[in-house]
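Slide 14.
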Amino acid sequence: MTSAPASLRDIATRVDDRLRALLTEEEARWVGFDEDLATPFAELTRMVVGGGKRLRPVFTFWGFVGAGGAATDARVIDAGAAFELLHAFALFHDDIMDGSVTRRGAATTHESMQAEHRARNWSGDARRFGDGAAILIGDLSFVYADRLLSHLGPRGWQMWNELRVELNIGQYLDMLGSAQNERRPEKAARICRYKSGKYTIERPLHLGALLADESTSLIAPYSAYGLPLGDAFQLRDDVLGVFGESSVTGKPVGDDLREAKPTPLMALALSRATSSQRDVLLRVGTSVLSDTDVAQVQQTIVECGALSEMETMIEQLTSQAITAISSAPIDAAVRAELVELAHFVSDRRV
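Slide 15: predicted structure.
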């Protein structure tokens, strides 16, 4: 496993400090207005400051520096923090859509708010309250993201709006794919790219570049690196969703299988499976999986060779990204950081 680059840790610290300052100020302002607002702000802070890989801020940062921005410029930290707030918005909503009960080893916000409703014996339906509260907290995070991007120019705003449309398109296709038990490889690859891959690597690089220079010529070179690496990132995420350790990922083992996620891993496994193996794999999305079922599906994915082939695909996509950035017109130090990040993204275990 590749360890986190030093620049990732440094940028994450700067972004975390910015997020804490923003949310502390806003919490004080609104709790002073009405003390009942303490809980939603606590939940927002828990999601935004309580964890995360901070990959989007680090790619925003190096996209910015690669386009001529100064590493000390506070605007790029604001932009990175905006990505984390946008990501939190997506997670609040995603947890409701997926019916997730835990995230990062703790109760999801909609579950926590439901529990508070029941504990206080409030009127109405606890589930509706919990879901509604989590949606509103996510929307609040969405608004705060925009507030941190006041320095963007017209092309930057166009890019920010486009990436948010892409994110929502990807999320809908992901939800639809689960409902339809989608297993076509081309559809799974499209969902993989749009629900996460593009807005994790390619678009942060683009936004950073446009923040530094609205006339930047780095959009295409960053795409040549960011698209394959974003695909590798999401493929790794899919592997972790099936085989990851819950103590590390913060999610139950086999969560993606129980949710029947339309992943390239499942599409690949079905394309390689024998008749008897297909019978095991087709349990996904057609029945409630027990722990034994999950273990049998995992074993089948390994035995049919899908996991091994997926690892090969991740390596190939990572190599493609590294080759692309090697010829990009950026400073050698920025290139070295992006190469190191490519290895980390594709080899992570969380």
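Speaker note: Residues 269 and 301 are 6 Å apart (CA to CA).
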